[in-house]
Amino acid sequence: MITRMATKQRSDDPEDDVRPPGFSRVGTRVLEVAENLIYGGIAVFLVGSAFVLLAVAAKTSWGLVSDFSQKPLLEVLDILLLVFIVVELLFAVRTTVEKRELVAEPFLLVGIIASIKEIVVLSVEAASALGKGAEFDDRIVEIGLLGVLVVLLGVTSFLLRRKEREPDEGDATPHRADR
Prior knowledge:
0% strand, Phosphate-starvation-inducible E, cell membrane, P_starv_induced_PsiE-like, membrane
């Protein structure tokens, strides 16, 4: 006769047997379901927003037929970059739900894309403000600050990836010198 303890698989990690303080299994499950519903709602709104933005981009693109100025083209580019940001946010939500933890890298990528989007828009505005003194200078300062932000976010993403490749501090795998 097999006992109940013998059929239960035991984990080597003592933290697996510890329950969250203050919550029963039912309470934890209820919060998990609520969390999934909230993430699902966020995902639905992001998908809806992306489709609405695509429709707006299509409508604005139709305006390019009659108006060959840079304004409608800049609006289309701005909207499409915004769609790209929304899709990356949707990816971040999906990654968070799949891994059951908040992952920083997709949000860093969204910050980089949003900064680049603003750099593109400000560059066109700066070109049209050329020779207007303070207005042009303000645009150039904003572009410079956003460029620094892109570099900082990129370095942060690089360091985060590098840290994820390193073994954990508590990893018990022996090194070559230890053998």
